[in-house]
Every structure is written in structure tokens, then in C-alpha cells.
Write a structure and sequence with these properties.
By secondary structure, the chain is mostly helical. Helix content is 83%, strand content 0%. It has five helices and no strands. Helix 3 (69-88) runs antiparallel to helix 4 (97-129).
Length: 138
């Protein structure tokens, strides 16, 4: 099955996000090696979770590229989680609107792309299941 252009763009966006998460993991690793962390156990756990998140994003990107609905669903969940982090930066003592925007805008773009990809895949599925007589209303 050939995927649409919007599905490939959504997959590419997820791959870019995965790259960003991997960069974050490298930054965490550098901080760990330098001894900038207060708790070794917490730092290692955070690093492991960050690498796991990057791997999940890569898997979702590949699945979206291949047209699998599970990749789109997983990608939407990731975008929702990132949006909740952005919302969290707006609350509390260190609330920062600019940081919230930096976090939220890419997640919103990803969410829009994934919804568009789902609509495109749904339309393609609907078109492939219609019989010739159905389209004419016969």
C-alpha cells in the first residue's frame, strides 16, 4: 500500500521529534558524566526513559510511513503528552510562556499532521472498499 504525501510528512515530523529527543538524551548523558546530577539513580532512569521515548518515536515514524494506524495513534498520544508538559510550564513558580510555546507549537504541528494523515488513510480505505456500483448510488 502506498502512503500519501501527508502521511510521509507526518512520519518525517515524528522522525525529527525523535532526533530532538535523542539530542536531549545526549545532553542528559553529558550532564551525568560531568557529575552535574544530584542523584545518580534518578539520572540513569531519566536517561533510560528518554532513550526509550526516542525509540518509540522512531517506531511510530516507521509505522506511519508504512501506513499503519498504530503509528498514528501512538504519535497522537505522544503529542498529547508533550502538550501536557507545555501546559505544566505555564503553572507554578517558574511559569514561562515562551518555553510553553516552544514546547507546544511543534506538538500542535505534529498533532495536525497526524490527524490529517489519519483522515487521508481513512479516505483511502473507504475508496478501496467501495464497489463500482456504490459510487453511482446504484
Amino acid at each position: 500500500m502506498r502512503t500519501s504525501r501527508v502521511e510521509r510528512i507526518a512520519a518525517g515530523w515524528l522522525a525529527v521529534e525523535a532526533t530532538g529527543v535523542l539530542v536531549l538524551a545526549v545532553w542528559e548523558l553529558v550532564a551525568l558524566v560531568r557529575g552535574d546530577s544530584e542523584s545518580l539513580g534518578s539520572s540513569v532512569a531519566l536517561l533510560a526513559l528518554t532513550v526509550l521515548a526516542a525509540a518509540a518515536l522512531v517506531a511510530f515514524a516507521v509505522a506511519v510511513w508504512r501506513g499503519a494506524s498504530g503509528g498514528r495513534s501512538g504519535g497522537v498520544v505522544v503529542q498529547a503528552l508533550v502538550l501536557s508538559v507545555a501546559l505544566g510550564t505555564l503553572t507554578g513558580e517558574g511559569a514561562d510562556l515562551r518555553l510553553a510555546a516552544v514546547i507546544a507549537v511543534p506538538a500542535l504541528v505534529g498533532l495536525i499532521l497526524l490527524i490529517a494523515a489519519a483522515r487521508t488513510a481513512g479516505q483511502r480505505s473507504k475508496d478501496s472498499t467501495e464497489e463500482p456500483g456504490d459510487a453511482a448510488g446504484v
